[in-house]
Amino acid sequence: MLLNDEVKMLRQVPMFSGIAAAKLKLLAFTSERVAYRGGEVLFHQGEDGDAAYVILRGQADVLVNTPQGEVKVAELSENSVVGEIAILCDIARTATVRAVTPVEALRISKENFCKMMMDFPEMMFEVMRVLASRLSQTTAELSAELAESRKASAQGAH
Q: What is the DSSP letter of 92?
């Protein structure tokens, strides 16, 4: 894929949509193009977060290890960004990401990702918006699960 094609694809990602083409070209140039077959893992829960990934083509699942086993918590498709939490919070990966179909992605190093956010505050705002949305969705799902669990417990007590 040509650099200009990667720039066009990055422009489709909401957090990059307001960034000048020249900066997107630099981001694409300094990013590593990676490819995964279906079933391959982009990164594992618990690993150091050294990069974020922009899914250019394909689909992947976000999986979390629990005492009951692996749980799928999200699905990723084209124009999704994943891996930014570990970079921003300087923590280990919070989930495993596994390709469902063949996946092409841009691997953006921690250094380049953070530099882009410093250079473009609107990108930082978009990242915060995405993370807040994910947190809201997770909170709603956990609340529903807790309510269901309490209901089941109450029915079992009768």
A: B
